């Protein structure tokens, strides 16, 4: 079962003797000191199955018997053990080892069943990774309320930007056939704290809102519920016309408002815990309030009013990318949304991509973060690697996400990080959200490659705790997924931690962006210049010519830097001060500009592209050293994908450098000639 990766990080294979012996006196049986609800049942079963597998002996759920007991405790029972649950909220939990005479009790305690389930998965993780649990004292509370996957899945089972097969949602067979895979999906998500899933694509039509599909969605929701996962749907703004028989979708029209309110009632009758709507409006051809000369706020509020009586939310996307963008695509979302700050209902979250363009291998943080203090902003990360080599390239994304979460907006002085804006603490918001565009599909290994599982995993862990360390998350994942062998763990971890920077180097170093083949976004095409709209062409982003390269976003150019707080704007606008990794994002720089390394800009670019290839080549040897220490099936697939990645890293390097040389007329610096 390890061979194809189906079990993700939830492999419960027997641990080696030297790892499991430490748990001998502990973890013998599971005792419920809580009401046995569906969630408690799945939690207890997961713990029993997991520990029985890992420890190679039956760890049953029993009625009593304190020897080696693991107690699952909620509510008042906590006082029996002197546990204070008051700061745990709905999803938090405690893990404690209590000593009763010579016996040890392991306690998982929470206010709510979902917290218990998260605590169970935490304990399992500790055992899977061989941690000492003899004196546990862990309190864990998520920083973000809504930790949600966004499936860009269509009802015909194609997946927009999906590289892992078809959609896992088998609409044809729903609601009568529940693919067992849905349960494994729910388990995997619950194990990393994900508590919501948007089933449909942001570009979906309105069909999913028709009665037969609401039945199907309800069946999925029933399967997700015991795992603490709420279901959400995308709401196509023109649905009242397309499926409602109205002539308009104008949010100010009472008939339109009544239609949405009725639709919400209908959904909530079938799915009482329905999460709400995700909306892409007035972007890339999607309908929206602008058609009726209404604002995003008027559009969002209408939907918010429809779901508010049921406790639902609206996640309204800030990814607006439309034709009326004369100067710089970078500036569009800020220009449209900042004037609306304070105008949204309290159950609206503005879901904002990490950067202002579109999920590039590296982007500075989006200037909207910090610029709408009266509005909860949610983070949208892309787990699927649309711009980072699809499923074949190894790119562990937690370092990229963490870089954005830790970025300092300075909007309220030093320490005003993006994470604090997202979690609501900087401005005191009630709701908070982090969304990840899913990389899940029907492939046996779920994500199209072994290593892309790590990105799903890391997304959940960072949504729970945006301050979590990417390397620690990766190490847990490697130990749970591949092996507990320290040497092998070190090798794999090293590759993962280098990987994002390697991709940046061989694709878009020094702040370049969007050089990918247009449309599909795979492979280099920096020369493309003839497409209908300026921002569809890579030349728009790099602006390379005979003299230099880069997008001037300072005062002498688009002045997008002015959308950041003064401190950040000053740094980005200053050629000497701007972090090297954003240099060409904000400046048009001459080829002979002297870099901190002493190289010219051109030499530095060549150096970065070359480094990217070199790093990937190195991994092939490192991975080969693991042959026989990783099961054959997964070993082979990774080895083959690394060969693809190396070949394509060279393709990127050679294509980009050759193209730039055709403009600047420069040679490769000595020592850098790419091998034939
Ligand atoms: C990108 C992506 C599209 C997607 C869009 C979005 O532009 O290429 O496929 O629909 O983002 O986030 O809405």
TrEMBL record:
Family of the protein in this entry: Belongs to the glycosyl hydrolase 67 family.
Entry protein name: Xylan alpha-1,2-glucuronidase
Enzyme Commission designation: 3.2.1.131
Active site positions, chain numbering: 284 (proton donor), 358 (proton acceptor), 386 (proton acceptor)
Residue intervals of the Glycosyl hydrolase family 67 catalytic domain: 127-446
BP GO terms, sorted: xylan catabolic process
Pfam families linked to this entry: Glyco_hydro_67C (PF07477), Glyco_hydro_67M (PF07488), Glyco_hydro_67N (PF03648)
Molecular function per GO: alpha-glucuronidase activity; xylan alpha-1,2-glucuronosidase activity
GO cellular component: extracellular region
Stretches assigned to the Alpha glucuronidase N-terminal domain: 8-123
Chain ranges of the Glycosyl hydrolase family 67 C-terminal domain: 447-671
Subunit note: Homodimer.
InterPro entries: A-glucoronidase_C_sf, GH, Glyco_hydro_67_aGlcAse, Glyco_hydro_67_aGlcAse_N, Glyco_hydro_67_C, Glyco_hydro_67_cat, Hex-like_dom2
Organism: Parvularcula marina
Signal peptide feature range: none
Coiled-coil segments on the chain, per record: none
Lineage, uppermost ranks: Bacteria, Pseudomonadati, Pseudomonadota, Alphaproteobacteria, Parvularculales
Keywords, ordered alphabetically: Carbohydrate metabolism, Glycosidase, Hydrolase, Polysaccharide degradation, Xylan degradation
Catalysed reactions listed for this entry: Hydrolysis of (1->2)-alpha-D-(4-O-methyl)glucuronosyl links in the main chain of hardwood xylans
């Amino acid at each position: 079962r390890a061979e194809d990766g189906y079990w993700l990080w939830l492999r419960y294979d027997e641990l080696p003797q030297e790892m499991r012996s430490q748990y001998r006196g502990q973890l013998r049986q599971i005792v419920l000191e809580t009401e046995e609800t569906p969630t408690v049942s799945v939690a207890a079963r997961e713990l029993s199955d997991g520990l029985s597998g890992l420890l190679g002996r039956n760890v049953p759920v029993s009625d009593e018997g304190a020897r080696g007991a693991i107690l699952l405790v909620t509510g008042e029972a906590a006082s029996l053990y002197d546990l204070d649950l008051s700061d745990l909220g709905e999803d938090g939990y405690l893990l404690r080892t209590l000593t009763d005479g010579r016996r040890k009790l392991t306690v998982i305690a929470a206010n709510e069943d979902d917290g218990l389930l998260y605590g169970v998965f935490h304990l399992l993780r500790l055992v899977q990774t061989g941690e000492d649990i003899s004196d546990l004292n862990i309190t864990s509370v998520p920083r973000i309320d809504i930790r949600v996957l966004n499936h860009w899945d269509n009802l015909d089972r194609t997946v927009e930007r999906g590289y892992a097969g078809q959609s896992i949602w088998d609409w044809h067979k729903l609601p009568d056939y529940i693919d067992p895979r849905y349960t494994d999906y729910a388990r995997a998500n619950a194990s990393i704290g994900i508590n919501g899933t948007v089933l449909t694509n942001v570009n979906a039509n309105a069909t999913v809102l028709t009665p037969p599909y609401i039945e199907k969605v309800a069946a999925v929701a029933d399967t997700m519920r015991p795992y603490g996962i709420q279901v959400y749907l995308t709401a196509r703004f023109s649905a009242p016309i397309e499926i409602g028989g109205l002539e308009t979708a104008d949010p100010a029209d009472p008939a339109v408002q009544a239609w949405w309110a009725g639709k919400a009632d209908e959904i909530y009758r079938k799915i009482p815990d329905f999460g709400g709507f995700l909306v892409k409006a007035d972007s890339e051809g999607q309908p929206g309030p602008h058609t009726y000369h209404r604002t995003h706020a008027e559009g969002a509020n209408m939907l918010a009013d429809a779901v508010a009586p049921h406790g639902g939310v609206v996640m309204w996307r800030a990814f607006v990318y439309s034709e009326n963008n004369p100067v710089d695509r970078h500036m569009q979302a800020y220009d449209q949304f900042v004037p609306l700050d304070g105008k949204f209902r309290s159950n609206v979250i503005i879901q904002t991509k990490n950067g202002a363009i579109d999920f590039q291998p590296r982007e500075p943080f989006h200037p909207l973060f910090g610029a709408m203090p009266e509005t909860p902003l949610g983070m949208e990360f892309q787990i699927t690697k649309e711009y980072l080599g699809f499923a074949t390239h190894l790119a562990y994304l937690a370092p990229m996400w963490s870089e954005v979460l830790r970025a300092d907006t300075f909007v309220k002085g030093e320490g005003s990080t993006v994470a604090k804006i997202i979690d609501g603490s900087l401005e005191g918001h009630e709701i908070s959200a982090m969304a990840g565009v899913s990389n899940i599909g029907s492939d046996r290994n779920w994500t199209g490659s072994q290593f892309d599982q790590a990105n799903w995993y890391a997304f959940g862990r960072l949504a729970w705790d945006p301050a979590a360390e990417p390397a620690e998350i990766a190490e847990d994942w490697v130990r749970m997924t591949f092996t507990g062998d320290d040497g092998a763990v070190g090798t794999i971890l090293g590759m993962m931690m280098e990987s994002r920077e390697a991709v940046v180097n061989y694709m878009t170093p020094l702040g370049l962006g969007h050089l990918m083949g247009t449309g599909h976004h795979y492979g280099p095409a920096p020369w493309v210049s003839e497409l209908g709209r300026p921002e569809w062409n890579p030349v728009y982003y790099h602006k390379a010519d005979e003299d230099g390269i880069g997008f001037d976003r300072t005062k002498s150019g688009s002045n997008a830097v002015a959308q950041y707080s003064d401190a950040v704007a000053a740094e980005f606008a200053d050629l000497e001060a701007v972090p090297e990794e954003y240099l060409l994002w904000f400046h048009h720089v001459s080829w002979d500009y002297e870099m901190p390394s002493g190289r010219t800009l051109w030499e530095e670019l060549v150096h970065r592209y070359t480094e990217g290839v070199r790093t990937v080549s190195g991994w092939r040897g490192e991975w080969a050293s693991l042959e026989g220490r990783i099961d054959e099936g997964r070993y082979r697939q990774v080895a083959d994908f690394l060969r693809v990645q190396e070949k394509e890293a060279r393709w990127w390097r050679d294509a980009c450098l050759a193209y730039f040389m055709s403009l600047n007329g420069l040679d490769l610096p000595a020592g850098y000639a790419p091998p034939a």
